[in-house]
Amino acid sequence: MYNLFKKIIFHILKWTVGQSVLYKITGVVLNMDDQNQEHKSDSSDLSDEADTLNYVLYRDRPEWKDVQPIAQDDGPAQVVQIAYSNKFLDVFDYFRAVLKSGEKSIRVLGLVTDALTLNPANYTVWIYRLEIVKHLKVDLHNEVKYISNVIREFSKNYQVWQYRKTIVEMLNDPSGELEFTADILDMDSKNYHAWQYRQWVLTAYSKLMKNELDFVDNLISQDMRNNSAWNQRYFVVNNSDPDNDVINKELEYTFGKIQILSKNESAWNYLRGLLLYSENGILEDKVRDFCSKLYNKGNRSTHLMSCLIDLTDADESPNPENVEKIKFALKLCSDLASVYDPIRRFYWEYISKDIELKFNFREHDTKIM
Amino acid sequence: MNKPQLKLEQHKKYFRRSLDLLPGEVAVFDYSRLTILYFSLIGLDVLDGLDSLPDDRKKDIVEWVYRLQLVPNEYCSVHKCGFMGSTTVIHLKNHPGCEKYCESNVAMTYMALCILITLGDNLNRVNKSAVLRGVASLQKSDGSFKSNYEHGESDLRFVYCSLAICNILNDSSNINVNNAIKFISKCLNYDGAFGQNPGTESHGGSTYCAIASLSLLNKLNLVLDENKSKILERWAVNRQTNGGFQGRPNKDPDTCYSFWLGATLSIMGSLNRINKERNRDFVLNNANLLTGGFSKNMDSIPDPMHTCLSLCGLSLIGEENLNPINPALNITVRAANYLKQIQEDYTLPSKNILNTDADC
User: Fold this and answer.
1) CB 3.0 to 4.6 Å from A329: which of A72, A90, A253, A312, for a disulfide?
2) Among candidate residues A115, A182, A122, A106, the one with its CA nearest the CA of residue A148
3) What is the pLDDT of residues A193-223, one digit of tens each?
4) Considering CB atoms only, which of B60, B87, B101 is closest to A73?
5) Is any Cβ of chain B less than 8 angstroms from the Cβ of A226?
């Protein structure tokens, strides 16, 4: 529905504001067909222009007069060129110069800060920043504050998290890290970078693990479909060397969540993970019992049906007593293929054939329950 | 509703534009311009559109890529060798004391090799032993690989790129293959798919990296027994929602996952179990009919990566008029066949690795 709306807006815009403006809005540059097009150095957009009102280019700063900027050497061929803004070119021309001269000073710290704002994905600038920070003996706590702000702006960039990790390792002080990542996850609770970083913190400083389950609990309560939070739950439990009690508690917890939202794949996958701790099929029996009850109440979640099929499929003893069970599994496959999960029709047909083959089951009557 | 059609010429044009000049908004890709080149050229090859580039242009591109190669000399030790992603700091290439700042990146080396093969270059000027030793120096004790030597992060992405490079250059004697396989196994999660690092959430992209890596090593069965394959297959087919594929459970679909998951399933021999028709519709509905190119979803604008991977995803499910691709290397079958041909001509290592720029 939302997408349809977007499309309509797009077409209305196309006819009202005209195509060229629309292209500008959508960030697509027109007229790029000409292979010999001149290098457009001034392609600054509106926000860039607003910035430049107060911003002085490095080449116009008297305190930088002693530095000879170095232009990018792209060679004779023009390939995947970028129409850099004036500001970008200026900052990186000076960055190239200091990288070559090796100057590590307060003014260069300012320069790399500008360079990183323009392109936080340039890991060489981060490497150089680290060297300046070490050389000037910059207070690393200030550096943590700095990188926190950068991450808030570019939270899905790899290099910013990598830099944070380096600084925190140097400080050997993870005290603010859980709070910080919680903050970022508050903006996007599925941010892969933030989760990965958080796992690193918890692994490197294992004492911090003790409240993690509460944190995860809270996120799952807010959004039961948050697969990242379920994964973190497994990470915590799995690292705690859980005994049977813990696993049983987790099983009950998951049953509870599934009863509220039975179509949630994340919870079902977590259940599958818990079964990896099963010994002698005890957990499987509990899960089978839970699933059968749910099914008999009329629940037809595709994940519930998949789980019931898997429990039959996992049974390695194809004896005549199982005939009814196998028939039931085949019926589930058929129902999934035709009614409940038609997008995966071919998949369920294949699973059905696979079960027939495995149990040497030639014909099946799907009408039998 | 009419079936959406693939506008071949429009997408070729989109890629040709990307090969020339990109808007200033993409300046965050300044340090990895080679990735834009990779996606544009592979995409163009999938569209069977390389012929639309003049020979001189192809030559220019090959030269541009070779300029990004770092070879061992008195200013560059062998562990920094390979390809850089851009010309941003190329002025330091032969500058004393600057090798920390002028270093290769394993993803860029992988893409550079793919570009060269795709354009019919025989890799004669690639300093193969230096590249291979550069890759080896990025391997950590846990078996994973870093992106680059100085403070580079490590995860399955760079394991894949490293193994693909060894596969292309037909030599994995410099790396510890067993440790790499161990690392991949550790990334296998409770839900049957792979995270980027041990413990991190399963993801379509990292799952592709794991499966493609194992496939290149011919070791799929070593990590995934019959049961594990089945669980992974379930996880992967479940990523199809509303037609398109999502990267993780309960996330929105995105065109690039039609490749990451399509290729995963293709390598596993399970691609026939998805709904190809709905997948096709989803991808084609995200084509921009004004500018060419594909976006990740309706809320975004096209970019070369999503355009290339959309087309690769379509090719996997047998879209007419598209060249077939090799899902493990992500180049066309045509390019992969050419690679096999030139691999026979490689004269491997023993050559003096201290080639200078001029020598190679």
Assistant:
1) A312
2) A182
3) 999 999 999 999 999 999 999 999 999 999 9
4) B87
5) yes
Q: Two tokens at B181? A: 């396989």
Q: Could you tell me if B283 lies within 8 Å of chain A, comparing CB atoms?
A: no
Q: What is the pTM of this model?
A: 0.91
Write out the DSSP string of A334-369: HHIIIII-GGGHHHHHHHHHHHHHHTT-----TT--
CA distance A49 to B120: 44
- Quick one: residue B320, left, alpha or beta (phi over 0 = left, psi -120 to 50 = alpha)? beta
> How far apart, in whole angstroms, are the C-alpha atoms of residue A353 and residue A30?
53
Task: Tally A–B CB contacts below 8 A.
Answer: 234
Q: Which of A7, A156, A210, A293 is catalytic?
A: A156
Task: Give how far A87 is from chain B: nearest CA, Å.
Answer: 11
End-to-end CA distance of chain A: 38
Q: Which residues pair with B194 in a beta bridge?
A: B188
Contact A130 B151 (CB under 8 A): yes
| Shortest distance, CA B348 to any CA of chain A (angstroms) | 30
B window 232-271, beta carbon within 8 A of A: 234-235, 237-238, 240-241, 243, 248-251
Which residues make beta-bridge pairs with B292? none
Rounded Cα–Cα distance for residues B158 and B139 (Å): 9
H runs (alpha helix) in chain A: 2-16, 19-25, 46-52, 86-101, 106-118, 123-136, 140-153, 158-171, 177-187, 192-204, 212-222, 227-239, 244-260, 265-275, 282-296, 302-314, 323-335, 345-358
| Residues ≥6 apart with Cβ < 8 Å to B41 | B15, B19, B50, B61, B115, B118, B119
* Binary contact (A80, B18; C-beta < 8 A): yes
Give how far Cα A74 sits from Cα of A82, A89, B4, B102, Å.
Answer: 11, 13, 40, 15
Q: What is the C-alpha to C-alpha distance for residues B79 and B99, in angstroms, rounded to an integer?
A: 10
Please state the ipTM of this predicted complex: 0.94
- Chain A CB contacts of B98 below 8 Å: 99-100
DSSP readout, B169-228? TT--TTS-HHHHHHHHHHTB-TTSSBBSSTTSPB-HHHHHHHHHHHHHHT-HHHH--HHH
Between B339 and B358, residue with greater pLDDT: B339
Assign 3-class secondary structure to A68-130: CCCCCCCCCCCCCEECCCHHHHHHHHHHHHHHHHCCCCHHHHHHHHHHHHHCCCCHHHHHHHH
From chain A, pick out residues whose CB is under 8 angstroms from the CB of B234: 306
CB pair distance less than 8 Å for B152 and A27: no
Q: Would residue A100 show up in a list of annotated catalytic residues for this protein?
A: no
In a mutagenesis test of the B interface, which of A6, A28, A355 is the best target, namely the one with the most B β-carbons within 10 Å? A28
CB B45 within 8 A of CB B323: yes
Alpha-carbon distance of A147 to A138, in angstroms, equals 13
